[in-house]
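Sharing a chain and its predicted structure for anyone who wants a worked example. Both blocks are below, sequence first, tokens second.
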Amino acid sequence: MSTWLVESTNPALTAFRNVPLSHRLLKLFESADVTRPDVSVAASDSRLSPARRLLVIHNPTAGRGKRRRLAAILTALRKEAVQVELRATERAGDAEQAARDCGPDIDVLVVAGGDGTINEAINGLMAREQSPLPVLGIIPVGTTNVLSRDLRIPGQANVLARLLAHGTTRDIHVGRANRRYFSLMCGVGMDAHIVDHTSLRLKKRIGKLAYVLQGLRELLAGAPRRYRAEIDGSEVVEASSVIVAKSRFYGGEFQLASRADIGNPELQVCLFLRSGRISTLLYIIGMGTGHLDRMPGYRTVMAKAVSITGHDGDPAQLDGDCRDCLPLEIGLGERPLSVIAP
């Protein structure tokens, strides 16, 4: 469900508010109304790009703090002479469908959410056959916002609004695991089991700490796992965990793959060669201290394609959510995506 936000003094607003769901959306974002572009305003600043038309996908059940942040950014967008349409998500998959189905009148598809919602939108964009694609914009209001950190998306509402309205774009190259796309990483092994077993209810209550608690459970369980990774059809490596990265960041501020670059059509394969509680603990310490590359049994390889087998049916996490399972064929997306970034 969507609505165009207009000036509260507009006479048409009285009739518009008679629509119950639209009224609730207006009440949710209160004063965060965004006008259609005013030609006189746009013409007053020749440095501005032509007015963009934005579709903002958001979760109306997000926490109060996240709603306030989104409302502040929408209010700031009101000053930038852009058109903004809001579309609320109601269930998993809605963001993907919105990205796949949005019409040619939309210039920028803006995702107000975390990495999981952004992943949905990216999969929707990559599934589109029509061209050109809308540009991807990001308002980071999720539990983790790794992609926005990698792209250096600003946090201040007025700065972010100006970026979304008039900022430049850059191309990113996403990865593909079987039939799903990812912008951050695809992992199998301990991290995938942590993601798969973490309680969603607990995650909503305590955020990223829920992953830490589940990680401790996985560490104590110490279930032995070995996977076979075939890299670029030539080298074969056995490891206890494998993470194929497109972003250098992992879980927030941690750097797992220092050579990964979302702007390059290449994958960095992170191999955790040793298994067992002690080795796993050393990996965690190395990641936390920024010295993972010095830990024994850790190795990275640049690649274009990776096949991972072993323990068929084991979960695979893509961008922080379990969306597939072994075996995996991992490569690069067929085309780059344009995103708004500094």
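Comments welcome. The first strand starts at residue 2 and ends at 4.
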